[in-house]
Amino acid sequence: MERRLLGRNQGRSDDNIETIRKRLKVFVESSLPVIEYYESKGMVKKIDATKPAPEVFEDVKAIFTHMA
């Protein structure tokens, strides 16, 4: 994942391996527990975001359609 993020070249001056590792650490420590909590309540839906954008959109749309 680190290589993929480095290869994106978003033009940020702080896009280096150390900064990316820090960002991932912050995500794991702060966001992941929240996701795990809601997942334990059956409230998380997972989407494969590696697919082309139109397919991801259809997957998201299907989830919201079932929620309505």
TrEMBL record:
Its EC number is: 2.7.4.3
Entry's Gene Ontology molecular function annotations: AMP kinase activity; ATP binding
Going by the entry's taxonomy, the superkingdom of the source organism is recorded as Eukaryota
Print the keywords alphabetically.
Answer: Kinase, Nucleotide-binding, Transferase
Tell me the SUPFAM superfamilies matching this sequence: P-loop containing nucleoside triphosphate hydrolases (SSF52540)
Which InterPro entries does the entry link to? Adenylat/UMP-CMP_kin (IPR000850), P-loop_NTPase (IPR027417)
Question: PANTHER family from the entry?
Answer: NUCLEOTIDE KINASE
Q: Record's family?
A: Belongs to the adenylate kinase family.
Q: What does this protein do?
A: Catalyzes the reversible transfer of the terminal phosphate group between ATP and AMP. Plays an important role in cellular energy homeostasis and in adenine nucleotide metabolism.
Protein name per Swiss-Prot or TrEMBL: adenylate kinase
Provide the taxonomic classification.
Eukaryota, Viridiplantae, Streptophyta, Embryophyta, Tracheophyta
